Amino acid sequence: MSTYRELLKDANRRMEEADRGEQAALLYLLELTNMEAHNLYMEYEQEVPADIAEQFEQGLCRLIKGEPLGHVLGFEWFYGYRFKVNEDVLIPRPETEELVANVLAAYDEVFDGKQVTVADIGTGSGAIAISLKKEEDRLHMLATDISEKAVMVAKENAAANEATVCFMVGDMLQPLIERNIKLDILISNPPYIPNEEVMEESVVDYEPHVALFGGEDGLKFYRIIFENARKVLNEKAFMAFEMGYDQKERLTALAKEYFPEAKIEVLQDMSGKNRMLFIYLHTDAS
Ligand code: SAM
Ligand code: GLN
Predict the structure, then answer these.
(1) Distance CA 119, CA 136 (A)
(2) Ligand 1 center from residue 70 Cα (angstroms)
(3) Known binder of ligand: residue 4?
């Protein structure tokens, strides 16, 4: 039998020896015990119940092997909502929450509470589309992905979070073009890692490659979207993308090529990295 303090100390030492992330063992224990950090601190010298200790040990072994916490738990929190995740979807990232927040702000500025049609291209777990719909019910929310298995997970997440989103399986904008759908807002966090990039093993070994890699230079999917965007956008519209921190120059140059009249803006994430690209077409913002 051990106390929470002993359990966590031992776990952190083993995680460090395996060269794994510092916070994962603590975050895992908090989720297992349903505690906030300050509650755990109050309980620090108490004995850990046997069933929790056993479950924690099993999960910890998976973390030590390099499995992401989201897979061990089976879910990830995103924008305050809980999303099921598995090997078929990208685990939604904190920087993507900032994309959602900035889209909501831009919606207020450009469309000011109007009903608009919005699509999330490459929705994965559905994190972006579902959070947006939960936060702003006036969005008519569509979402697409090429992976049927991802769309199945996204549909489960929409049901669990009671959000109405219309999901379509297909290649980039194709499902919208086929149905002659016109959008006011297009959002995408496409795969943007260059094919040859060396990555952390907990990402590259466990997350779907179709969600990560964006061709030789990482820009393949932006090109496809830019090339076809006018087929699916209303005249007054905006687009919002997540991007790699080192893609600002190349991506803004590409955006200017396709949308010379647009207002193009790059926003930084909380760690000060260039992370989001906004393109405004014929809006008051332009
Ligand atoms: N939107 C989710 C998020 O932000 O957490 C997932 C983003 S993940 C980086 C990119 C997603 O694009 C994956 O779900 C992947 O299956 C999807 N995808 C890859 N190629 C695609 C294509 N040709 N057409 C549509 N979706 C695609
Ligand atoms: N941010 C993700 C990562 O670092 C990649 C997401 C993407 O390609 N859109 O693994």
Answers:
(1) 14
(2) 18
(3) no
